[in-house]
Design a protein that fits this description.
The chain is mainly α. It is built from 6 helices and no strands.
Length: 143
């Protein structure tokens, strides 16, 4: 009877070892498949990068990014565009309702500016945040 029990335990151990080995091999195949897919994706990305270089898009993007690295333009526009918000909250916090009246008067005056000036300002702001002004204009005129 001891011998039968020992065979069952041995058989169980073999099955357990076989399951562990098959899981390890299966995981290895999945890792190899993932690495292969990653290499394929990297090759496609590199190919698209070269295609864009040939079309001239990459040079513009790289030059634009390099020019913006040392630029305070986008920070400047962010501060300027945030001022009305700060004025509104400041007027409430400091109990100065006349600030809001002056802000409204300023916006009414801005509303009277010529269209060309507004478009030029919008183009400057858009370009400082990395948008191609020509793309924005094309989208606007396609409507």
């Amino acid at each position: 009877m001891n011998m039968v029990l020992r065979c069952d335990l041995t058989h169980g151990n073999i099955n357990m070892m076989w399951n562990v080995i098959s899981q390890i091999v299966g995981t290895g195949f999945k890792v190899m498949k993932t690495r292969s897919e990653t290499k394929q994706m990297a090759a496609l990305a590199e190919q698209k990068h070269y295609e864009k270089m040939v079309e001239g898009k990459i040079e513009y993007e790289t030059a634009k990014q390099n020019a913006m690295d040392n630029s305070w333009r986008d920070e400047w526009f962010t501060v300027i565009l945030s001022l009305p918000l700060l004025i509104v909250f400041g007027s409430v916090f400091f109990n100065k309702p006349e600030w809001i009246a002056k802000l409204k008067e300023g916006f009414e005056t801005l509303n009277q500016l010529p269209d060309w000036y507004i478009y030029a300002l919008l183009a400057a702001i858009a370009s400082s945040f990395g948008m191609k002004v020509t793309d924005l204009a094309i989208k606007k005129f396609k409507k």
